[in-house]
Amino acid sequence: MTKNTATELSTPQVNSVMHAIRILELFAIKQKQYLTLGEISLSLQIHKTTVYRILRTLQKVGWIKQNENGGHYCLGSGALLVTANAISHYTRQTLFEEEMRNLANQFNELVILATLHGDLGVCVDLIKSKHNLSLQTVTCYVVPLNAGATGKTLLSAQPDDIMERILLLMPQKDIPKLREQIKAIRAQGFCYSEGEVDLGVTAVAVPIRLKHGIFVLSISGPTERLKKMGYDIIRFALLNSATNIIRKDTVINDNTF
């Protein structure tokens, strides 16, 4: 760990700022125009007095507005201006890189992004933790679709017609077992594999279905190390990142300024 990293981790957080950010994000999570003081307090488990003070502060700078009756709050134009600026500079690649870096820093393992190119699975990006090795982008790296969490998740995420077409290209003896695995992945919403592609290496993967394409986000590393971390913890982090990417990608594509 570098000196700068240690300093970042030891720097205390400003709770009022964290609470304010959570309140603003709650409008996006709830997907509602208006929220009440009580609803915010209950959802975030923050005392009503604290919520009220933060809302009043955000009102003063134009980030929050109240309706005429004063009982409901909505986002103000200040938030709109910041959102517009962020959207104008963000791309889908930026969203992926941001979430992948967060995962790499959290688990200190490889984070892989894959998609389908024709009938081939391809790794389009790979990030290692900044505490280990720096960013490395890999293009045209073929991902097997019949083995490993990344490839099988990518195959299972495809529409049925594409999945069936790809299955016909595989050895016939392998298809029944693969169909059962695809069924399980679709039901569970994730996949993990131990040593299927590389001996002693485990991968945990989740699908990301966007308007303009299907991707798979996965974490890969030594089996014993990932087991120690806990597959459920890794899965939850991947699903959270996938949700963040989908939600933010929708905002970018649905809003023009």
Give the structure's gist in a few sentences.
The protein is α+β, with helices and mostly antiparallel strands and 257 residues long.
Structure description:
With 257 residues, the chain is α+β, with helices and mostly antiparallel strands. It has two domains: 3-88, Winged helix-like DNA-binding domain superfamily/Winged helix DNA-binding domain (Arc Repressor Mutant, subunit A); 92-254, 2-Layer Sandwich (Beta-Lactamase), CATH 3.30.450. 53% of the residues lie in helices and 20% in strands. It contains eleven helices and nine strands. The chain has a six-stranded antiparallel sheet, sandwiched between helices. Strands 1-3-2 form a three-stranded antiparallel sheet. Helix 2 (15-30) crosses helix 4, helix 6 packs antiparallel against helix 11 (231-254) and helix 7 crosses helix 9. The protein is elongated, with a radius of gyration of 22 Å. The two termini are 42 Å apart.
